[in-house]
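Hey all, quick one. A colleague (J.T.) asked me to put the adenosine-5'-triphosphate job into the tracker so the inputs and the structure tokens live in one place instead of scattered across chat threads. No bug as far as I know, just bookkeeping. Sequence used:
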Amino acid sequence: MIKVEGLTKRYARTVAVDNISFEVEKGQIVGFLGPNGAGKTTTMRVLTCFLPPTSGKASVAGFDVQENPLEVKRRIGYLPETPPLYPEMEVSEYLRFAGRLKGISSADIAKRIDEVTGRCALGDVRNRLIGKLSKGFRQRVGLAQAMIHNPDVLILDEPTSGLDPKQIIEIRELLRALAGEHTIILSTHILAEVEHTCEHVIIINKGRLAAIDSVANLTNRLRGAEAVAVEVDAAGGQPNPTEVQQRLEQAPGVSRVVMKDSKDGRIRFEVESLQGRHIRAELARAVVNAGWNLNELHAVGLSLEDIFLQLTAAGQGAAEENRKEGEPKQ
Amino acid sequence: MKNVLLICQKELRSYFASPIAYAVMAIFGLIFGWVFYNASRDFVRYTLLQAQGMGQGGPMSVNDQIIRPLLGFAGTIALFMVPMITMRLFAEEKRTGTIELLLTSPVKDIEIILGKWLGALLLYVCVLLMSMLNIALLVLWGKPDLRPVLVGYLGLLLQGGCLLAIGALISTMTRNQIIAGIATFFISLLLWLLSWFTAFDSSVTATVVNYMSIVTHFENFGKGVLDSKDVVFYLSMMFLSLFLTSRSLESLRWRA
Ligand SMILES: Nc1ncnc2c1ncn2[C@@H]1O[C@H](COP(=O)(O)OP(=O)(O)OP(=O)(O)O)[C@@H](O)[C@H]1O
Ligand SMILES: [Mg+2]
């Protein structure tokens, strides 16, 4: 549905997006993840035909963004980073304008407005001036605007920013419900958001692609080794932490043991396994055989957060090099 | 065409939702009314004097004594009014980011530009219509020749459309509407003054520069003379400015 090939976007001094390629299948919901200044907004602006690429190609539903912008725009609903709202308009009036602009006939517009105000929970504010709405409501009006013409593709730049936790959950549910029928790309810096909402994730850092995979795969791929949290009861000062640490280190398959803390009569460790080994049973046995009480033992998967830091830290050096080359000679 | 009207309607809506439309109409309505009042009062005085055999000079005519100065004055006033109307056209959308909605909707750039220009032109026409109320009074008690009046208003419309297109162009170049307004004012002023700079010069450059002056072309309209050369000038200036606006909008995309 969306295809990006060797996309580069250069501003006067910076290379905002540097030779990235990816594809998004119809019906997928993809998270676009990266720190500030990574180039997420820029990529989205190219996809929505707001900015032309410096080089490379991007196409939506088979239409190239440069050769056929009108066809691309017809199929895209876009929520920019700052929702594009006219404060002097009422919500329904604004949605009518946006809908008509996107080609909905005047016969259908009322039905569409009902539909999106319902989905974005805007029923109560339909006749309020946009300028007088709270930030969360404005964000939702922006989202409603993106959905008004029921587009095949939704491109949402930080759709949940400014929303309260309850609304965030509602929007996530809404997006999951929309996926399948619609193809969705959403950008965010919040990892939990991608884990909860998206099937696939595209990670970019400093304009370069760091990883692209399904959320599940990516977590697995980087996990290889298992990390386990172990808590041993040490009420009354027995056993002493070093002794426990030694025992755990001797268990088969263990590569490293880190003591996290030791207080209130509990000692906590984080134990990492060798590549591809499962060590939970061994750890339990080691503790119990020594005659200690095992309080807790559970796997701590590497979170997307760890993955993200790992990936972006690894990519950093290379990206830095590349930026220097890309800059015009003084 | 549907998109042009849609955008035009939106522009008019926001003019009338903000104080701009009312301010422009009130200020220029008052100024125009005041000038009209003075011109007619003087006219009545002189006519009375003449009737008593005390005045000198040829016969007085409503057209020459009231309408022509009034139209000339309206032409000058447009210089102040146009920047107020056009300054926000694109600058405001750039500042608030709503330009992203327009430029990512399935409409052509030229439709956006024409829609906005047309919206601005309609507000300008509202002001012209208000000034026509004064003329209507004249028709009630004087017997002015209507043809020069209509030609004069056609001139005002063409000149206005031209200045509005220039204002729209300048508004695409900044995100600060005050800067857009001031720049538009000075550029219009410059185009207006061009005829003064070259008044006593008859070299080729001077003729060309003089040709560019907005005022030179309005003079004929003011006298009630419809010359196709002037109409062509205004239409081509309009076309050129709107074309440049579309280029500027395009380059906005490259720079944005
Ligand atoms: N109009 C512009 N002119 C010049 N440089 C720009 C412009 N817009 C963005 N940049 C630069 O391009 C790079 C990428 O910016 P972009 O807005 O795409 O990042 P982002 O991933 O959306 O960041 P954020 O998470 O903060 O929204 C940044 O280094 C930024 O400074
Ligand atoms: Mg961004």
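Adding what we noticed when we looked at it: The longest helix of chain A spans residues 304-326. The CA atoms of residues 13 and 330 of chain A lie 11 Å apart.
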